[in-house]
Amino acid sequence: MKTESNNTDSGHIPAGGAIDATRMDLANRLFFRLYQCANMLHKTGTRAVEEEGLTTQQWAVLGALSRPQAGDGMTVNELARYLMVSRQNLSGLIGRMERDGHLASAPDGQDRRARRITMTPSGRRVWTVLAQPKIEAYYARALEGFSVDDMAHAIHYLLKLLDNMARLDTQGR
User: Fold this and answer.
1) For 12-48, how does the pLDDT look when each residue is reduced to its tens digit (9 = 90+)?
2) Which of 120, 143, 135, 16 shows the shortest CA–CA distance to 65?
3) Of 37, 85, 88, 102, which has the fewest CB atoms closer than 10 Å, so is most exposed?
């Protein structure tokens, strides 16, 4: 039977969350690097698509709505859950994107209180014709030196971290 100290020695943080100095240092470094990556994604990603009048947040919304699973659009709640943002932050963004002609909203067919968000033909053109080539070039440059295995492993560990953080989020409510 594993004890907490055995569990820590094997490289896993025990359920109680105790963490030794080495793991604390690595955790600090990891979260700081994630913070830096998020900031650089916002800065350099926005620069990659700004000629099309987009920001990284708008890029994320168009990307979410362009997925095959979102063929009929998404409600504001579904979009907020998928992007892991608040409805309040998303509402302002959706309003701006509607004004720019990229999105349309209408009452949801199943829940008249909910709004269903879809890409307009203009939004789809901006996404597929104008933004996609720039996003692909951005990905190529940002992921330079990454093998397919590197990317798969990074996704695996980021999803594991995201699951843990989502669990923390639901516990905090």
Assistant:
1) 665 556 678 889 999 999 999 999 999 999 999 999 9
2) 120
3) 88
Is the alpha carbon torsion for 63, 152, 86, 93 positive or negative?
negative
Contact yes or no for 49/135 (Cβ under 8 A) = yes
The residue extents of the domains of the chain are 20-142
| Two structure tokens written together for 25 | 């240092």
Sign of the torsion angle spanned by Cα atoms 14, 20, 26, 29: positive
120 contacts 102 by C-beta, under 8 angstroms: yes
Centre a 10 Å sphere on the Cβ of residue 126 and count the other Cβ atoms it contains.
23
Q: Which fold has domain 20-142?
A: Arc Repressor Mutant, subunit A (1.10.10)
Q: Using the 8-state DSSP alphabet, how is residue 77 labeled?
A: H
* Structure-token match 């994107």, residue found: 97
